[in-house]
Please model this.
Amino acid sequence: MMLELEFLDTGTIYSVIGEELSSYINNFEILPSVNSTNDYLLNKETLVAGTICLAEQQTAGRGRCGRNWLSPASGNLYLSLSWDFTKKIASLNGLTLVIGIAIINALNAYGLSRVKLKWPNDVYFSQRKLAGILVESAKITKNSTQVVIGIGLNIYMPQESTILNQPWIDVYSIEKHPPDRNRLAGLILRELFIALPKFQEFSLSAFRHRWQELDLLVGQELSIHTPKGDILGIGAGIDEFGNLLLRQGNTVQAFNSGEISVRFASFI
Ligand code: BTN
Model:
């Protein structure tokens, strides 16, 4: 039997975020259908910080590395938020890690535990992907960067769905009772409004400890897929810039998320 979930509703989401943190919101739209919530914000003529777009469905949802993001109607969360940093784009390394931490904090507040982060920005539960993050730059000046943060959270996915042939899971399968999408959306935005100003001020250093608690890859045998070939090693956490550290014997190598993908060696 198909579950009937409540529609997304701005009033309910605002009440979860709370009055003080809601002051970060400048514009809030919920659309029944859109190609991609990220594209919707990126194509706006003027995009102010704190613009939010949620959609019940995406017809051309996008994932990292040019992949598709499966976005069927009225079951999941497709959320985009614009944000301004007075930082150069190069100093935003680590932002996706911070967003991942904010999502986990929101899921914990919702009541979901045992959720982990697979570097650089996938939210996992029991070796299966629960949420993904796509951060894109909207406007870059010498000392400031405007980004659009896109988050896709699987909440109630039709069973026949496949996401990029990778193992996935949704909130409903974990919890086994009808999920509250408005509460999840509100909690995620709330945690972002706490994390993003903190990242502006303290960079990744304020989050490294929390990352260590949530790191799915540490101590695991990994295969790093690079343009030059695959590299095997053991996950050794992240460095101060948010690069992945891989141990091979006595040496530790750092990898930037740009051109690589990571898999568990046991899954190859
Ligand atoms: C990934 O894991 O590859 C990232 C997935 C990001 C999906 C979200 S859904 C909302 C926003 N709009 C998009 O088109 N993509 C992001």
The two ends are 36 Å apart (CA to CA). Helices lie at 10-17, 19-22, 37-42, 95-110, 171-175, 181-202, 208-214.
